[in-house]
UniProtKB/TrEMBL annotation:
Lineage, top ranks: Bacteria, Bacillati, Bacillota, Tissierellia, Tissierellales
UniProtKB keywords: Activator, ATP-binding, Cytoplasm, DNA-binding, Nucleotide-binding, Phosphoprotein, Transcription, Transcription regulation
Stretches assigned to the Response regulatory domain: 4-118
Domain of life of the native organism: Bacteria
Organism name: Thermohalobacter berrensis
Protein name: Two-component system response regulator
Amino acid sequence: MAGKILIADDEKNMLWALKKALRKVGYDIITAENGLEAVNIFLEEGPDLVLLDLKMPKMNGIEVLRKIKKENPDTPVIMITAHGTAESAVEAMKIGALDYISKPFDIEELKVVIRKALKYKNLNDEVKYLKDKLKEKTGYIKYKSSKMEEVLDIVSRVALTNSTVLILGESGTGKELIADAIHDNSNRKDGPLIKINCAALPENLLESELFGYEKGAFTGATKSKPGKFEMAHNGTIFLDEIGEISPSMQVKLLRVIQEKEFERIGSTDTIKVDIRIIAATNRDLKKMVEEGKFREDLYYRLNVIPIYIPPLRERKEDIPILVNHFIEKYCKQMGKTKMSISPRALDKLKNYEWKGNVRELQNVIERCVILSTEDEIKEDMFPEEIRKTSATSLENFILPDEGISLEEVEKSLILQALKKTNYNQTKAAKMLGITRHTLLYRMDKYGIKKTN
């Protein structure tokens, strides 16, 4: 695996030996004899990997590592030293070093470490490229939360495969948009994306819609008609509300997933198709399997790659960006000038539980844009259940009969705030409604480290 490697070490003999050994296996080698030179060469050359001695003149390895990670966090760095201790190794790994190797070392062992590091970098680069492409093509998915970032990370990884995907989540969370994103970023994007809501049709109509039928197959079949599976050939079929299909339909669907073949109603001719199947449900299919309401073999065929979309109440940081998106959308549709939303109104929306998720939020904003005679959305425009929302939802908290440790609750809330703010203490303190000094005192009290 070729690549450009920067070796930074103040020992000339070590530089010469490493340069010679690694060039023999095809690597492009550049060297630096002190920390300052290493930083300058890194900025000029942009190497794929850095071998970095811990103890060097002009700037030590830890400082060089900090500057490298600040400039390009994705560049893998392997620390090499004869002077290192366990503490320095831990510190380097915390800052972002990928690996750590001590002198004297076996050159073959180092080659293995380098190969793994470059493979890791190539995989990271590929995922980053796919995520960037995904963001270009999924501008219709509005989010800010890390939870939705994780969802789209999975989408970027599975889009280019042909694996069956099962999208899970409550009604209104955006399962169809995720299906669109998978198809739009797949190798099948130029083929059809055929959608069907399995809950919208009775069993006999669902079968004819999915498999098609021949002329005369039943009363009213005056001409042959291809089904959704046939129409999705060389593309993707999206089966929404898959948890609603009958046991007999489950058997027929299982065959299509396994064999990619079926017959139209009224025909004995087998039709083979090349399709990707994406299914979605708001039901707990695993529980339905345990209750005997859903076939276990079908469940495992569908659940190859599950993608769970969290409800809006678990990612409330997405609410402001969604609100602005819907305001802009409906103002444009209705020919109105751009509206805004008051801070108090936005707080009401952020504190509401959103049992209908994004779809419910969308409906609320559409109604406000339609009915508003002003250029600002205010809380009195909302439905009563939203207007009555209190600033926090703690009033709904029920103390368990067995009691609870108040200190554990406080520690848990502090950790949640730190994680949500990426360990920004000022933001975490603001989220908890306390001062930063109070937060630091309580972090010390509970033994919570100041960095992630």
